[in-house]
Structures are given as C-alpha cells and as structure tokens.
Amino acid sequence: HLRFLVGYIARREILTDLQLNAALEYVRSHPLEPLDAADFEQACGVGVCITPEQIEEAVEAVISEHRAELLAERYHFNMGLLMGEARNRLRWADGKTIKNEVDLQVLHLLGPKTEADLEKKPKAAKARLAPVEKQKVAVVENGDVGTETKSLLEQLRGEALKFHKPGENYKTEGYVVTPNTMALLQQHLAITGGQVRTRFPPEPNGILHIGHAKAINFNFGYAKANGGVCFLRYDDTNPEKEEEKYFTAIRDMVEWLGYQPYKVTHASDYFDQLYTWALELIRRGQAYVCHQKVEEIKGHNPPPSPWRDRPVEESLLLFEDMRKGKFGEGEATLRMKLVMEDGKMDPVAYRVKFTPHHRTGDKWCIYPTYDYTHCLCDSIEHITHSLCTKEFQARRSSYFWLCNALDVYCPVQWEYGRLNLLYTVVSKRKIIRLVETGAVRDWDDPRLFTLTALRRRGFPPEAINNFCARVGVTVAQATMEPHLLEACAREVLNEQAPRAMAVLEPLKVTITNFPAPKTLEVLVPNFPADESRGFHKVSLHPTIYIEETDFREEADKGYKRLAPGQPVGLRHAGYVIAVQNVIKDVSGRVIELEVTCTKSDVAEKPKAFIHWVSEPLACEVRLYERLFLHKNPEDLSEVPGGFLSDLNPDSLRVVHNALVDSSVLSARPFDKFQFERLGYFSVDPDSKEGKMVFNRTVTLKEDPGKA
Q1: 222-233 residue pLDDT tens
Q2: Where's the tRNA synthetases class I (E and Q) anti-codon binding domain (predicted)?
Q3: What is the set of domains in the chain, with CATH numbers?
Q4: Which residues contact 323 (CB under 8 A, 6 or more apart)?
C-alpha cells in the first residue's frame, strides 16, 4: 500500500503527524485486502478543515467545565488536561494552535502569574510499601529507585497498550506479513479464543537466580494481568548439561513465587514435529547441510559456507545420515539460509550430539538449537507474546523468518531489560567455580542470589515479587543494589515474622531476689504492634541470659543499657534489674552478673529495655555479609585478579552457642522470626533435633554503609 499512502502525502491531503499516524495505523490494520479510499479518508481526517473559531469554542467549553478548579489552583492546575479534552473534541485540529488558544484563554481568566504561582507544587508524601498487587513501583535511574503509584499488575496491563492484541500480530513494527498470515491468525484465534498466552522457557541446566524472578513475574504476571495463561516450557535441547534436579528446582521456584503454570511442557515434546519441519525447510531450499567446523563459523564474519548451494536432495540425504549417526560430532550441521540482525549468517538449526536425552533416551543423536527451536515451540503452543530479555533482540528477525519460511503461525517477540544485582555473580559457570573451590557450599548457599539461596536465607517470595515490581517493567537493563531487595524483605517480614527472643553472645545473669518459688510465666506478643495476632508464653527463671554487649562495667556518656548503678528493663517481663555483683574469671572476663529485680510499676523508669532468654534452646546462628568486596566482581578493570580473588573473608560468621527462647521449638525449615533487636531469621534445613540452625535474612535496619 506504499504507493497509495504516498499519493495522499504528495497531494497534500495528509498534512499533519496526527493524520499520518492514523493513516499508518489504518494501513497496518488492513495488511492484505484492497483499501477502501472513502473509509481510509474518513479514518485519517482527509478534507477535514478545523477553523480558528471552532478551536476557540472548544477551548472555551473545556475551560468553562474546569473553571472552579482553575480559579482554586491557578497555574498549578494541570493544563495538559485542558489540551487533551480540547483535542478529544477536535481530533484533527493542530496541537500548537490548541495550546496557544489554551494559554491565551487561561491568561485572560487568571491574569499574569504571581510569585505564589511560580512556587513549586509540594510533592505528596511517599507511601510505605504494600503487597505486590498494590505495590509502589520504581523507575530506575542511575541505580536509584523513585516511586510511581502503579502496581505491578497495573504496569503489565499498561504494557498491553504497547503490545499487540491477540490476533493483531501484523500491527507490530517489523512483523513480516505473508499471503498466508491472515488465515494463520484466524486459525490461531479459533484455537486460543483471543486469550493472551505467554511462556517461561528456562534451560534445565542450572538453578534460577534473581534475574529469572523478573522474567517469571513478567511472563506469568503479564498473562495474569490480561486474563491469559502462561506455559512453563523447559528448553531441554542440550542433553549434555541437563539434570533432573534442575527440572524439579525450576518448577519449585516458579510455584514458590506464587505462580501456577497453565501447562508444563518440554521442547523435547516436539522433537518429531521439529524434525519434520527441518526436512520441509530443506525441501523449500531454506536450509542445507554444512561441514564447516565450529571454529570456522564462530563470530560475525565467518567465511561463507562452500556447501550453501548444494542440491536439496543431497542435503535431505545427508540430514538423514546425521539422524542415523553416520557423522561424528562437529562433522555436519544443518544451517538455515538467513542473515540475522547482528550480521550473523546462516545460524545452525541442528547439530550432532551422541548424548542420551533424559526424556527421549537414545532415540536422537541430532538436537535442535535455540535459534531453531524457540520460535517453532512458541508457534506450536500458540504463544501470543514471546517475552524475552534484550540480548535476544538480534534474533527477532530469524524468529519471524523461520515461522514464515515454514508457513506456520508466527507469534511476536518482545524484549525487556535484564535485572542484574551488584556484589554478586549469577552465571552458572561462575557459581560452579565457587562451589568447586569451596567458597560456597552449593547453589543454595545463602550468600548467593539464586532463588533457592534466597529462600534458604529466609527471603519471602512476596519480597522478591515486590522487588521486581519496584524495578518495574523496563526496556533498559536495570542494575540494582542488594540493599533495595533487603528493604523489600524487611517490609514483608515485619508483617509476617512473629517475634521471639534470642541471645547470640550469652552472659549469665542470676536474679538474687527472684519473686517466685520457681518460675514466672510471661506472655509475649507475637506482633507487639498488633496484639490481636496472639501471644506466646516464655518462662522467666532466676537464671536468665542477656547479650554480652548489653552490659558494661562503666557506663559511658550516651550508653543506656545495663551497668553498675544503671538498671534496665527486661522486655515483656514487667521487671527492672539492677547490678549487685560482677563475677569474673581468672583472666578478668565478666562471666556472670548477680542482680536484683523490681516490678516495673514501682521502679523508676529505666533508660532502656533489653531482650533476654531463660531456660533457652541451644542453637547455631549464621550471620551473612556480602560474598564479594566490590560492586562488579566480574569486571576485570575493577577486580584485575578475577572474581575468585574478590571474596569477602567475613561473608559468613557462625555463632555456635547462641540461645533462643523455647517458643520456637516446633518451628520447621524456612519458618521465619524476628529476633527482637537482632534482625530477621529463618530456620535452616540443617536443623536437627536438639540443635536448631538459623540464618539471618536481614538486619532490623539498613546498614548506612551499604546504602
């Protein structure tokens, strides 16, 4: 339709950007059928003449409707609203003319700006973080996060305005329309009923990390926000690196984040169909068997294949020989005849691998590549929106090309920015090196940012989803500080984690005037800010334990906790204790305090209240810091010795003889608590009867040095 469209422009019947955009939209919506000139002209405002009088009347009517707000807010009123409403009344009017008329009439109504009009309008107070459905979302600028009042689902519904509607793939820029496109889209709509379909397609050769959390939220969230479904499809085309434990872990993490796949599929489900299509691609002259070595075709400027123009029948026979195992690994590949967006020529579709597949066994010794498999699996599953990270943008042209070369339904690929985190590595190869060198225990070591590691450390899934919401649906790559993820964890854990008391460095305290024959029962609120959420019981005995750091022999200026002559209150107990005697060992180290207690309602109010335990459980506590010393441990300009030379020697401190109150006795792995005054902690799977193990998830407050 190019000649048709250019004719209107050349004859000056389409004059404005507004008319041109309407014309382009009309043409995109009618990709194949002959255009109706009268319908086209009406849709594009051809011949419509807007007079200055019409503009004046429209602006006058809009200002009249908003007169009261204008007089109240004066020049702080959103003038864009007036322009928008005037444009709605006169669609084809010139925007600059409308703006000038709005400015003129507002000046006539309000008069010149005063000093008060020139002052900046005060910003609304920031709201605290809310659950993921209502989450404040962030714009990432230079690593900083600023809030906007849009939830994650609202963002993803907003993306629907940018993306095509199901069945309208042809409206997407760069989408290739063939004579069969419209018929294929009609068949697609008949199968899906116009439903949005996305997929999350991980490779089952490693554990998911924090970057995958954004992909999961985007794919599953976009489908959910727009009434659709999302497939979990394992891209299991590389049998050398795939293990069953990865399949299980991936699904566990998707469901842990709160998403349920519409269907779980595998690329290997479609191996027979993919092979049949490969034969068809050869028959159509669009693929050939090549014998160049891997080293020869690497990079963007490899020499052209001398086998590119070999006869179709010859390639069919050779491809059959590949399938029968007559070629060794690296001796033959099937290549597609196209040039990709990044200049790479003739990507490989199939290669020989004599490795049994975990699902198909020894049936195949040739396996399809990502470039060949991905778009065709999307087509088979009738995916509407193939959402992937920005590095796959160079493959978009091959995505469209392959579907069209085979005359099958062609979905649309959309790209978004990756989510990266500072002070960590997420590459599978590098994590394996960390495990092999003993720097971390395994993929779920709580110092890593794999999803299994974050779960083990105690991060709630809601916090990870909220973090993805705060990062937002960005096209640009987002590189974030870990403390932003930790802030999301604190917000969620503050609402979810019941309180308990624990002592990391115990100091024995004997109450010499204990007011009961044996014990007192103390009721401790699970959530002090909301006592309606219940209580748990803690026993108070004549012997208690406090933190060593909560006692000093001399109270410095500003020190408010326990010291001779300076009593403190015991949290929740209703008693104030005062030091009577300090007991030391032969080296002069304080090993016990003898104190007296007084009921809080008769004692002078102390300067501070401290936590304590009595008849506690012994436990191990693991305290974590950043695994790496530098923000970008993989950047050789920042860390010349490589990431293994950048390990933080203090990334893990194990407290072997910590004590915790017995209220946590029945806790199970991954149960979470706030240990009062210490931080948020999670029960580690290493816990066993008689010795619980806790991981510190985050401290109670952000360390200013990490922000």
Answers
A1: 999 889 999 999
A2: 609-684
A3: 1-44 (no CATH), 52-110 (1.10.10.2420), 152-267+373-418 (3.40.50.620), 269-370 (3.90.800.10), 428-496 (1.10.1160.10), 507-611 (2.40.240.10)
A4: 275, 364, 365, 366
